[in-house]
């Protein structure tokens, strides 16, 4: 029976990691994998997480099951950061549950949307490939619109057109901040318009917030989510703590639903719980518990926010340095300075991507997506020179 299965293509990024690992050059540069790196090229555990984990080991008295919703104190502790301190539950209309990472949250959100009768998901192109893969696995059609213009700004005309052409049974997926893979985010004015468009059309927004705090700040990066939720009747927010708490492999995320009223919310969340039960039963606890311990402790919260500020500041410096290089060979690196988060796309041809890898030992996805955090004071000049060389 199992021999009926067809060979699946290897994940392109994992294949890239293998290639990078087998390259003997000492000065090779990895801009592929989507993790933050320090100026020394490391992805360390946050100090605040280490302290919280220590506390967890000392104080945790049971590892008995919690239930499909996971650690609700963790879920609730995040809400003021996402939805604002003034009214984090939107008068009882928002509730959440813990999920295995942002991916688990997206899986649940899209499955819930499908159960609710959503037929198609409108997604900007390019997007994080897993959005399409989850839709394909769940049998949901994806409708694509262009996310960005050639000038490196959000393609608002394409978005307006996609929303105007949407049907009542469509949902739309938007990146809350730090768009992956382009780094091109909506401005506050654009979010204002998007909120109005979605409210008028009445289609379900699913907002993927996987990088809060890595763009312009925790509050700043929540602008779009808050603006849309204030305008529409219902929405889903898929949250990841894997970047802003550096917890990647511990799989820490949450799903939040906003309903028209409290009674609706109970019914909606019961579907989230049932789907979680059928998928993974319960989310892993450890990382979420560490985040909760941080958020329950003022000093640890301050330490975490400080570490997050340092990450963001470093990425801003790398972006500024690339922007300063301006026109390099045949490409202009200046738009990268105004983009947000871990990623940006450089419009390389496939041959140029290959030349970057083979001639210069610089590894990144075939799409031209680079992880800006992979650049350091030690390698950035060499990177800029390599870009100039292959695009000349
Ligand atoms: N959404 C986007 C846009 C992402 O880039 C990622 C991670 N690469 C995720 C969601 C999910 O993150 P995780 O499952 O690792 O929490």
From TrEMBL:
<dbReference type="GO" id="GO:0004069">
    <property type="term" value="F:L-aspartate:2-oxoglutarate aminotransferase activity"/>
</dbReference>
<dbReference type="InterPro" id="IPR015421">
    <property type="entry name" value="PyrdxlP-dep_Trfase_major"/>
</dbReference>
<dbReference type="InterPro" id="IPR000796">
    <property type="entry name" value="Asp_trans"/>
</dbReference>
<keyword id="KW-0663">Pyridoxal phosphate</keyword>
<dbReference type="GO" id="GO:0004838">
    <property type="term" value="F:L-tyrosine-2-oxoglutarate transaminase activity"/>
</dbReference>
<keyword id="KW-0808">Transferase</keyword>
<dbReference type="GO" id="GO:0042802">
    <property type="term" value="F:identical protein binding"/>
</dbReference>
<dbReference type="InterPro" id="IPR015424">
    <property type="entry name" value="PyrdxlP-dep_Trfase"/>
</dbReference>
<dbReference type="Pfam" id="PF00155">
    <property type="entry name" value="Aminotran_1_2"/>
</dbReference>
<feature type="coiled-coil region">
    <location>
        <begin position="301"/>
        <end position="328"/>
    </location>
</feature>
<dbReference type="GO" id="GO:0030170">
    <property type="term" value="F:pyridoxal phosphate binding"/>
</dbReference>
<protein>
    <submittedName>
        <fullName>Tyrosine aminotransferase</fullName>
    </submittedName>
</protein>
<keyword id="KW-0032">Aminotransferase</keyword>
<dbReference type="GO" id="GO:0033585">
    <property type="term" value="P:L-phenylalanine biosynthetic process from chorismate via phenylpyruvate"/>
</dbReference>
<comment type="subunit">
    <text>Homodimer.</text>
</comment>
<keyword id="KW-0175">Coiled coil</keyword>
<dbReference type="GO" id="GO:0005829">
    <property type="term" value="C:cytosol"/>
</dbReference>
<comment type="similarity">
    <text>Belongs to the class-I pyridoxal-phosphate-dependent aminotransferase family.</text>
</comment>
<dbReference type="InterPro" id="IPR015422">
    <property type="entry name" value="PyrdxlP-dep_Trfase_small"/>
</dbReference>
<dbReference type="InterPro" id="IPR004839">
    <property type="entry name" value="Aminotransferase_I/II_large"/>
</dbReference>
<feature type="domain" description="Aminotransferase class I/classII large">
    <location>
        <begin position="27"/>
        <end position="386"/>
    </location>
</feature>
């Amino acid at each position: 029976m199992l021999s009926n299965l067809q060979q699946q293509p290897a994940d392109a990024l994992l294949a890239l990691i293998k290639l990078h690992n087998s390259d003997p050059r000492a000065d090779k540069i990895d801009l592929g994998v989507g993790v933050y790196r320090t100026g020394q090229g490391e992805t360390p555990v946050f100090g605040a997480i280490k302290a919280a984990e220590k506390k967890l080991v000392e104080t945790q008295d049971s590892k008995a099951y919690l239930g499909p919703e996971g650690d609700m104190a963790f879920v609730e502790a995040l809400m003021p950061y996402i939805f604002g301190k003034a009214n984090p539950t939107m008068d009882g209309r928002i509730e959440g549950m813990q999920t295995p990472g942002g991916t688990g949250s997206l899986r649940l959100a899209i499955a819930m949307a499908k159960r609710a009768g959503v037929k198609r998901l409108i997604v900007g192109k390019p997007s994080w490939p897993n959005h399409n893969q989850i839709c394909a696995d769940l049998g949901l059609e994806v409708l694509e619109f262009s996310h960005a213009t050639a000038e490196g700004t959000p393609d608002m005309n394409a978005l307006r057109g996609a929303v105007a052409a949407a049907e009542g049974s469509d949902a739309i997926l938007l990146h809350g901040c730090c768009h992956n893979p382009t780094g091109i985010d909506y401005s506050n004015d654009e979010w204002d318009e998007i909120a109005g468009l979605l409210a008028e059309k009445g289609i379900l927004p699913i907002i993927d917030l996987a990088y809060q705090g890595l763009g312009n700040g925790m509050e700043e990066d929540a602008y779009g989510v808050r603006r849309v939720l204030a305008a529409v009747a219902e929405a889903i927010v898929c949250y990841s703590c894997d970047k802003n708490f550096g917890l990647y492999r511990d799989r820490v995320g949450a799903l939040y639903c906003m309903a028209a009223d409290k009674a609706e919310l109970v019914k909606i969340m019961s579907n989230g719980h049932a789907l979680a039960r059928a998928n993974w039963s319960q989310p892993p606890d450890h990382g979420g518990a560490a985040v909760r311990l941080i958020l329950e402790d003022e000093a640890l919260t301050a330490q975490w926010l400080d570490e997050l500020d340092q990450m963001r500041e470093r990425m801003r410096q790398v972006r500024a340095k690339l922007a300063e290089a301006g026109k390099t060979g045949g490409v202009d690196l200046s738009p990268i300075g105004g983009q947000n988060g871990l990623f940006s796309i450089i419009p390389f041809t496939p041959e140029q991507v290959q030349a970057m890898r083979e001639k210069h030992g610089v590894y990144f996805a075939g799409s031209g997506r680079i992880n800006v955090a992979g650049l350091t004071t030690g390698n950035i000049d060499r990177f800029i020179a390599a870009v100039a060389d292959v695009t000349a």
